[in-house]
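Need tokens for this chain, all 455 residues.
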Amino acid sequence: MKFNRIPYGVMLAILVGIIAVAGSASAQAVAEFDSLWLHTADARWEKTEESFNLTMEWELYIKKAQDKRGSKFAGEWTKLAPETVEYTYRVEVATDSAFNTIEKQQETTESSLTIRDLNFDQFYFARVRLVDAPINYRDDFASGTIYKHEKQMGGKSEENTGVIGFIRFSFKNGGWQTYVITALALLVIFFVWPVTWFRLRLTNVFPPNKPGFLYSALPFDRTGKTDHISPKGNVYVREVAKYWSRAMAAMASDPSNWASTEAYIKASAQEQEEVKKRRWLEEGLPAIEQAIDVCKNGVPGIKLKKKPLEYPFPRVLLAALENQRINRNNWWASQEMDRAVENTAYKEIDELKGWSVTAFWAIGSIEPMLGLFGTVEGIQKAFQRIQAKLKENPDAPMSETVENLASGIYQALITTFFGLLFGIPFMIGYYYYRGKADWIFGKFEEIIIDLLNRA
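Here are the structure tokens for all 455 residues:
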């Protein structure tokens, strides 16, 4: 039998029959299910030193047509073996959750695919889609399954540890308040604090016996700075006290200055006044002059870094001594001397505080306020970003919303942290130096009162 002699009509009939059978089989296969579900099983973001890759795996599930219950429980879905049907899949990688900007996409007929050479410094979202899918096709969620990768740079994480990493992260994520807070903090650390420390150190207030750096840098009082009683005390104060005591003794009306006790008793008021004036001129006034000379020129043999009257305490002593020299031994001398000492002490303390102690308080108060301002601004920006994102994509996932919220909260917390980090120590510094200035003022009065009482 020769095939070339088969009538053309017979051959056409056979071909039509084959097509009909195949179409019937295909229709039967499609009719076996009425819903197709493409499920993303896994998405692995992998990085090497040279590249950043994404490997995705997926599965197909069907829901049989004869199931008429209408329920959508997961148990009704049946996993479809990959060899049962052949579809073309497309993996899409985009920079936004709505997949408006697709960076890379590849097609395959397998159930997994690896996309290579992605950028390290970019957030990505990935999904798998069916090419030429049937009408009843569905996948995970309306916008696809989203996977987000943390930012990478050059194959290495941007996350830094330690102080340098924290500072870099803070300046990158904090607002402009972070820069202002840091600038004010540097102003205090490198200018305000050194000026305050230098002004209020005890060896800059009381002429020291040993004007060395360690001796002058110690923040607490040591024997030799203010002590005027101990043999190892402040030589300058003890030298002034020696001559001042002689002057005070010459002002007293003592029976030892008379020939006998009976003569002292019988002496008239005029005679007693004459004796007091004579003793003042012969003993008291020269002693006051010597004390004033020590105040102005210092103690012989004790070398100071600056002139004695450039120290605050000698100026307070000089005010008392000069006032006593002018008023001599009159009854009002004590009151006038107290007034002069108090006024001069207030003036010296105000000069010691100067602007620097006030700067501690001002900057220490401003820093937390700037931090609070940054907190409010950061939270405001966070909600503005969320609002803008939802307007752009109302179906944006929760992960993307949280990301926008977190960036604003970062700024809020960082500025608050920096404001408190510097504000609290500066306020402590203010109260410490204000207390030290009050202590110095009290020490002025304590020494002078003790000198007068001992005289």
